[in-house]
Amino acid sequence: MSVSELQVTPQRAPGGGEKGGRALPTAVRVLRWPALIVLGYLVPVLLGGSDRIYAAVVLIAIFAIMSYGIDVVLSYLGEVSLGHTLFWAGGAYATAVVAVKYGWGPLTSLAAAIGVVTALAVVLGLATIRTREFVFSLVTYAAAVIGLTVVSNSDFLGGTDGLVGVPLLALPAVGGQYVARTNAEMWPIAFGLLVLVVALIARFRRSRLGVTALMAQMNPQLATTLGVDVRRTRVLVFVLSAPIAGLAGWLYAYQRSYVSPDLLSAHFLLFMLAAVILPGRRLLLGPLVGAAILTTQQELFSFGGDADKIVLGGVLAAILLLSPNGLVGIWHTITRRSG
Amino acid sequence: MRVLDQLVNGLALGAGYALLAVGWTVLLGAARLVNFAHGQLYMLGAFVTWWACTALGVPYLVAIPIALVAVGVLGAVMQLALTRLVVEQNIVSLMLVTLAFGYLLQGSAALVFGGNPQQIPSPFSSQNVAIGSARFTQQDVLIIVAALALYAVTFYVLSRTGIGRIVRGVAEDPKLAQLYGIDAARVYLGVFVFAALSAALAGAIIAPRSPILTSIGFDEVIITFLVVVLGGIGSVLGNLVTGFGLGFFVALFGAFFPPAYSMAAAFAVLLIVLVVRPEGLRIR
Q1: B137: which strand partners?
Q2: DSSP string covering B197-249
Q3: By CB distance 3.0 to 4.6 Å, which of A108, A184, A210, B159 could disulfide with A54?
Q4: Please, which residues bridge with residue A73 across strands?
Q5: Model pLDDT for residues B215-240, shown as the tens digit of each residue
Q6: Which helix (H) or strand (E) holds A179?
Q7: The domain containing residue B233 runs over which residues?
Q8: Looking at the domain assignment, is residue B281 inside a domain?
Q9: What ipTM was predicted for this assembly?
Q10: Tell me, which fold does domain A23-338 have in CATH?
């Protein structure tokens, strides 16, 4: 971890609003989040409201939630977890198993998904508690690949075919049920969960744990001197991040109506890392913007599977080599030069 | 006898694991560079060998140097792109960039070489050798000889020669080494190319044992992690011992349980070792 990478000015970190320093009129400050939420909800309508648009925005919401899971570890803890596909796939698989094999409803399957991934995260977090920097990344990466081989060979989990026939998402609602038959009907649920997760991240950035994590990342010695248990913080943040990815997996299982081992492939790992790094780390809406850019490319401007791998790998490598602070870093360089 | 068969199999497997890990551990020890694209370099070594054999029609033993040159040049290009990050010791970015490079290489290889499984036509794969009731191929002998030879050379160069002293100096303290007139960037380049060459060699001679796909790099690199983390980072002898140990473990496990779970079992061993001894088994 180089010091130059950590350019968070004390006044701005952590949370505290994007342009907290500048004085905004009170009305704007109070209303900008509700306005943004309403505007966000209307995005598919404003783009024409076709099936393709709804499919794309639902996927953006799901992949953004998935990316927020790894964002918590990568941005605030400063650790590179390469095992978060395990939590994403774990959430989806737990959902599919209980929904397909035992006929559980969406709320109980959500509880199962969260329970399974939290247990996985506790085991992995405690096993790596004493490992140094890159060994943590190696072990989490190995965990994800081992997960892939186990899932591909397990008859219980459907082997390489996965599990098909996840029922429609039917949530209890006033006067009966709300059934999400299409992506357009899925959108309110996906968007609602996305808003919830962003609110949770905003809360985390201001929480004691969030501040402690950032301190443990920037100066572990100082943190220890001030009485912070760095190892405990690391495990707590790691375990907290897992249910977020698991929640995305839960929703994805219903949206796609099947799960398969590709959830553990390098694709989703590279996707979530790129979604966080491309806009710039430690931005509240960063993973959402990153997921939107990457999903739009793949859903609406795809070059085919193998070429998309080159695009995703190339984008991630290029941004890290040219501007480690992401698109925001490039923006700052441009504005500084012209200004 | 089944156990004897599996022991011979384990010897060949273990030599292969050790061969795959040697360049990676030297690179990690000298430059603190975690190369997640190592598995893809192995895959490219295998595929360029296959391509040279089938498309160019050259003999297997001529195809190996072609693969080495191709992957070596690619390794040099990768390291030149990474030099700034290595000098800054920005480990987080290094891991992520190499991961991205690996994915990029995998996509490119799939476009160039296609998505079908291929078989490298090695003349040694069909030649059997028998010791007692145990049978193995000349290819297995080649892997064991190559692994032992490469470890002997690596150990000798690192511990007994001037080059080894320079590499160890840069590993210990790059800034101080530069004060003594050592060009650290050149040392990093050399070590990275060595790592790429050893991965390509491993691909060229281990891969004929089974059909190859452009996606194999993603899994193969796991074996390297297990060997290096268990054997102790930068410890050449430790890696040789754990490579063989892991080979025997996988072979014997596969004799009694479904072989698909052997890597998962090895990983479970790793998790236990990490809890008990986070620094690995580290054999000096």
Answers
A1: B128
A2: HHHHHHHHHHGGGS-B-TTHHHHHHHHHHHHHHHH-TT-HHHHHHHHHHHHHH
A3: A184
A4: none
A5: 888 878 888 888 988 888 778 899 99
A6: strand A176-180
A7: 2-276
A8: no
A9: 0.89
A10: ABC transporter involved in vitamin B12 uptake, BtuC (1.10.3470)
CB pair distance less than 8 Å for B89 and A320: no
| Domain total in chain B | 1
What are B9's two structure tokens? 């199999």
- What percent of chain A clears pLDDT 70, i.e. is strictly above it? 93
CA distance A260 to A160: 7
Indicate the domain borders of chain A. Answer: 23-338
Q: How many residues are present in chain B?
A: 284
The Cα B223–Cα B24 span in angstroms is 11
A269: nearest CA partner in chain B: B99
Helices (H), ranges, A208-265: 208-218, 220-225, 230-256
pTM for this entry: 0.90
| List of chain A residues whose C-beta atoms are within 8 Å of the C-beta of residue B99 | 82, 269-270, 273, 316
**Residue A102, φ and ψ in degrees, nearest 5:** -115, 0
- Closest approach of chain A CAs to the CA of B5, in angstroms? 25
Residue B283 within any structural domain of the chain: no
Identify from B216, B269, B274 which residue to disrupt to test chain A contact, counting A C-beta atoms within 10 A and taking the largest count. B274
pLDDT in tens, B147-192: 999 999 999 999 899 999 999 888 888 888 888 888 989 999 999 9
Find the CATH number of the domain harbouring B113.
Answer: 1.10.3470
Chain A residues 208-227 with a CB less than 8 Å from chain B? none
| Cβ-Cβ contacts under 8 Å, B82 against chain A | 321
Contact criterion met (CB < 8 Å) for A78 and B92: yes
* Tokens standing for residue B30: 């000298």
Which residue among A145, A266, A307 places its CB closest to the CB of B103? A266
Classify residue B282: in a domain, yes or no: no
Distance from CA of A159 to the nearest CA of B (A): 12
Backbone angles phi, psi at A180, to 5 degrees: -90, 95
- Which regions of chain B are under pLDDT 70? 1, 132-133, 279-284
The answer to whether A273 and A74 have CB atoms below 8 angstroms apart is: yes
From the list B53, B48, B58, B69, the residue with the least C-alpha distance to B113 is B48
* pLDDT band at residue A338 using 50, 70 and 90 as cut-offs: confident
CB B72 within 8 A of CB B200: yes
